[in-house]
Write a structure and sequence with these properties.
There is one protein chain. By secondary structure, the protein is an alpha/beta fold. The protein contains 10 helices and 7 strands. Helix 5 packs parallel to helix 6. The longest helix is centred in the first third of the chain and has 14 residues. Bound molecules: S-adenosylmethionine (SAM). The site of S-adenosylmethionine has 24 residues, from helix 4, helix 6, strand 2 and helix 8.
């Protein structure tokens, strides 16, 4: 069973990626007007991320198609049953991860999003994919929503929300990561603190830059 290559999920993903490609934030005056330096500062800020993502609330900002496929393959190959995601947006990465859970025989995916309209779109997309029953969308700031009620053992963590918060979100989830758990962090270059933490084996991780914009790490046991 490979649900990402068959209907209804394959054509849905094609459509959602095509829509995301057609609506770039750079074409939006509210975002394109920000200088590259200011954009870089906002991407790295631990305090102004709400403002940045409010400006970006109408954009999907998904992982790349390749990273989506990578997420599916990793979750399948470790037979993941429990997944946590930081940053749902319209749910493209969530669909890949939930599809892997479905094909693994079931499981639970907890994902987090603070823009209500995005959570609603993700819910609709997951329903269209036939995957909503596997996913709990926690609405609100992940610093709060992922601080409580996590599963005892987590197989895979995707970090794809505000980049500056990667160390804080990792700290919330860390004690639940099982030995061998995988962490995929998208665009982690914006968080040097995070990279320093996972690249130091004394902190309990093996970590490598992978593909173009992913840091892939494994929790040591
Ligand atoms: C890059 S997008 C996620 C894309 C999604 N993973 C995908 O591949 O389709 C980042 C999302 O994280 C959300 N976000 C950023 N910081 C957050 C936080 N602290 N708590 C909850 N959501 C957050 C933003 O609103 C945005 O929708």
């Amino acid at each position: 069973m490979t649900s990402v290559t068959t209907s209804p999920i394959a054509p849905l993903l094609d459509r959602l990626f095509a829509e995301a490609d057609a609506a770039s934030p750079m074409a939006d005056p509210a975002f394109a007007g920000i200088t590259p330096d200011e954009r870089d500062r906002l991407m790295r800020s631990k305090t102004d991320y709400r403002d940045l993502y409010a400006r970006l609330k109408d954009f999907a900002l998904p992982v790349s198609r390749e990273t989506g496929a990578l997420l599916y393959m990793l979750a399948r190959s470790i037979r993941a049953r429990t997944i946590v995601e930081f940053g749902t947006s319209f749910g493209l990465s969530t669909i890949h991860l939930a599809a892997a859970l479905r094909d693994n025989g079931g499981g639970d995916l907890i994902t987090s999003e603070f823009e209500p309209s995005k959570a609603a779109r993700a819910r609709a997309n997951l329903a269209e994919a036939g995957l909503l029953d596997l996913v709990e969308i926690r609405e609100g700031d992940a610093l709060e929503t992922l601080a409580v009620n996590l599963p005892e053992s987590i197989d895979l963590l995707l970090l794809d929300g505000a980049k500056a918060l990667y160390p804080e979100i990792l700290a919330l989830v860390e004690s639940s990561l099982r030995p061998g758990a995988l962490i995929v962090a998208d665009n982690a270059d914006y968080s040097p603190d995070y990279l320093a933490r996972v690249r130091e084996p004394a902190n309990g991780y093996l970590s490598i830059p992978f593909a173009e914009d992913v840091e892939l790490s494994m929790r040591l046991g």
